[in-house]
Structure formats: structure tokens, C-alpha cells
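agent> step 3/5: call structure_predict on target 'Rhodanese domain-containing protein' (Carnobacterium divergens DSM 20623).
agent> reason: downstream docking stage needs a structural representation; sequence fetched in step 2, passing through unchanged.
tool.input:
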Amino acid sequence: MFFFKKLPSITTKELEEMLPKKPMIIDVREPQEFSGGHIPTAKNIPLKKINSYQIKEPVYIICQSGMRSKQAVKTLRAKGMDAVNVKGGMMSWAGKVRGGKL
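tool.output (status=ok):
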């Protein structure tokens, strides 16, 4: 019996390389954190609202450090959605950002 299932994850570098393909990115940080700087194509859905979210395509979940995004991925995958955690979160992001400085 497995107590810990490994969540599908990618690095911020892998996500950055995928940007030309326009992947669906959800940032689960709070709105004030999101406005402080986020990936230009990311959509902000705070963690506390992720349970009501429905999606049919693969989605990449990011937060500040990777902890909230793991929780969001667990929630979405339990509902049968194809969700992938972005390891290291915005703290590891080296690509372009929209909004304030991180």
C-alpha cells in the first residue's frame, strides 16, 4: 500500500521552455502576491478557491515556493483533472514576469 503518491511535477525551467505552446498556468497565490509579479500568461485562482475549479486540459500549478501548488494539485487530481505541480514556485522562476517586482 502506498501512503505517499508522487505528484507529477516539472521545474520552472521546463515550464519556461513550454511557454511558446501556451500551457494553461494557474497561480494559486493570493491576489496581492499575484499582482506583485507573475508569469504573463498565468491565471490567478487562490488556493482557497481551487476546489470549485473545473478544467478539461492539462494545467500547471504554481505558487510562491511550491507548497500551496502541491495542495492544489492534490485537490484537482482527486477530482480527476490533469494537474502538474511547478517545483520551487515563483521563488525559482527566472523567466519574464508581469506586474511588480518579486
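agent> step 4/5: record observation. The mean pLDDT is 92.
agent> proceeding.
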